């Protein structure tokens, strides 16, 4: 894998602490949380493009798979990217009142785009919410142009945030336990319901898929929220399931 100098340079401990502090805003103030995450995501993809291809994203096209209300759109447009978004839930698309001109309703498992359409196709924290994450990954690869990048980032089940809003430890007992405990405690089911909209996805699964999927080269795999000096954790089989938290897979289409 390439050394990724631009990507490592931006992966500082200060950034990690800032992102960790923002997690508490995800549900009460999603505009704060996703606004900051949008800046970080666009910066990450810009750095990855520079590491793999050189240059910036100006004039490139990008597809956001699971783009939700469109929090990420402006950050990519600021970088000169022709931004497209696909989202299956019409309520989610309109949740923040953001007007995204090229937002399409559709499933990540059957993307409503022609093959070889985009320079960059990425998905931020969506794979753990679909029952067939690697089918979604293959669809992302299909609509990417040759030499383009697929960037798939997802939350690992055995990491501290695997249970999402159900807590930092109940999902270690079991997904069903965490779901039911949340319902008893709050009087309503969680937003992310285990077995329906939240699934057990491991780090090892993603690495296996990235290394073996036809028509692509895995050029990077690293913990999204960790400083660059901690990226080695991805290489340690048992540790990575608990410590990586969120895995970024970067593939170049052949």
Compose a concise summary of this entry.
With 254 residues, this protein is α/β, with parallel strands linked by helices.
Tell me what portion of residues adopts beta-strand conformation.
Answer: 15-25%
| Count of individual beta strands | 7
State the helix count: 10
- In CATH, what is the class of the largest domain? Alpha Beta
The CATH architecture classification of the largest domain is 3-Layer(aba) Sandwich
Q: What name does the CATH topology of the largest domain carry?
A: Rossmann fold
Give the helix proportion (percent range).
Answer: 25-40%
Task: Give me the Rg, rounded.
Answer: 17 Å
The mean pLDDT is: 90
Description of the structure:
With 254 residues, this protein is an alpha/beta fold. It is built from 10 helices and 7 strands. The protein has helices at 5-10, 13-22, 30-53, 73-78, 90-93, 133-142, 170-173, 175-186, 203-212, 237-243; strands at residues 61-65, 82-87, 103-105, 118-124, 144-155, 216-223, 246-253. The longest helix has 24 residues, at 30-53.
Which tags fit this structure?
254 residues; alpha/beta; Rossmann fold; 7-stranded mixed sheet; 10 helices; 7 strands; 37% helix; globular
Give the SSE map:
Blueprint: H1 5-10, H2 13-22, H3 30-53, E1 61-65, H4 73-78, E2 82-87, H5 90-93, E3 103-105, E4 118-124, H6 133-142, E5 144-155, H7 170-173, H8 175-186, H9 203-212, E6 216-223, H10 237-243, E7 246-253
């Amino acid at each position: 894998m390439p050394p990724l100098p631009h990507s490592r340079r931006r992966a500082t401990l200060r950034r990690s602490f800032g992102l960790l502090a923002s997690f508490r805003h995800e549900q009460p103030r999603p505009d704060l949380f996703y606004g900051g995450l949008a800046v970080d995501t666009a910066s990450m993809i810009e750095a990855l493009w520079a590491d793999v291809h050189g240059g910036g994203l100006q004039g490139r096209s990008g597809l956001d798979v699971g783009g939700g209300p469109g929090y990420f759109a402006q950050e990519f447009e600021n970088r000169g990217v022709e931004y497209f978004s696909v989202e299956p839930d019409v309520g989610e698309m309109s949740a923040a009142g953001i007007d995204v001109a090229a937002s399409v309703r559709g499933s990540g498992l059957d993307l409503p785009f022609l093959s070889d359409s985009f320079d960059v196709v990425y998905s931020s924290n969506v794979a753990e919410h679909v029952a067939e994450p690697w089918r979604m990954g293959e669809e992302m690869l299909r609509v990417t142009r040759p030499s383009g990048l697929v960037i798939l980032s997802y939350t690992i089940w055995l990491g501290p945030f695997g249970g999402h809003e159900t807590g930092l430890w109940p999902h270690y007992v079991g997904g069903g336990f965490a779901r039911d405990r949340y319902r008893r405690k709050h009087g309503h089911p969680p937003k992310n319901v285990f077995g329906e909209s939240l699934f057990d996805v491991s780090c090892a699964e993603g690495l296996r898929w990235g290394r073996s999927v036809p028509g692509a080269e895995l050029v990077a795999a690293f913990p999204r929220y960790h400083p660059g000096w901690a990226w080695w954790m991805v290489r340690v089989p048992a540790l990575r399931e608990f410590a990586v938290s969120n895995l970024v897979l970067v593939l170049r289409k052949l």
